[in-house]
């Protein structure tokens, strides 16, 4: 499921996402694993928030996303910052016609939007094929705890002068999955009327052990697994799991 109209309001409605923390993790990992190159592929780049931040830090960034609407926002954003970022429309589970990269990242739980085990496996295989020897693959996913205890039957809402959002979460069809039912209302300044848009999004996650098995089968060496932007022991109520893998 790709973002459609929601793409143009995404940054406004998700302004509390801690993008700078992902940048800090990547910069620390670059030093920790002694990655010399700066060519980076930002898979599922969305509106380009991370792509732009990483380009500002000196990375040569390529952004890829399945949503043309998201990419349109990302391209405009990079241009506004006078940054040279190459964006392309691609499905992360069907990567093709790409060079080798020093870094490949799938951030902000974007991997959870893949609906089948086969898609996850194919994504890991594709990333491995497009990662240079000694390159680093980083991604994060929702934990089983978050998917099954924090999302199910929850409602999130935002009400501002020109935009409102109602976000309903339901248990998905598959184990460890959730459906996000989004309804948002945006003021059309020319008519002074609110337009309503509805979208349905799906997310699914797997255990640390399952992800690890697929990564090893793809050829990766797992360097470490952490949670919630912290090193150390992964707690039972951790919400976001981070994987660091090398080729």
What topology does this entry show?
Blueprint: H1 10-13, H2 19-32, E1 39-43, H3 49-56, E2 60-65, H4 68-80, E3 86-89, E4 101-106, H5 117-129, E5 131-142, H6 144-151, E6 155-159, E7 163-171, E8 177-188, E9 193-204, H7 208-218, E10 221-227, E11 240-246
Helix pairs in contact: 2-3
C-alpha-based Rg, rounded: 18 Å
pLDDT averaged residue by residue: 92
The strand count comes to 11
Structural class: alpha/beta
Shape: globular
- Summarize the helix and strand pattern as letters: HHEHEHEEHEHEEEEHEE
Largest beta-sheet details: 7 strands, mixed
| Ends apart, CA distance between termini | 29 Å
Can you give the helix content as a percent range?
25-40%
User: Which runs of at least 5 residues are low in confidence (pLDDT < 50)?
Assistant: none
Strand content: 25-35%
Strand adjacency order, main sheet? 3-2-1-4-5-11-10
Summed up, the helix count is 7
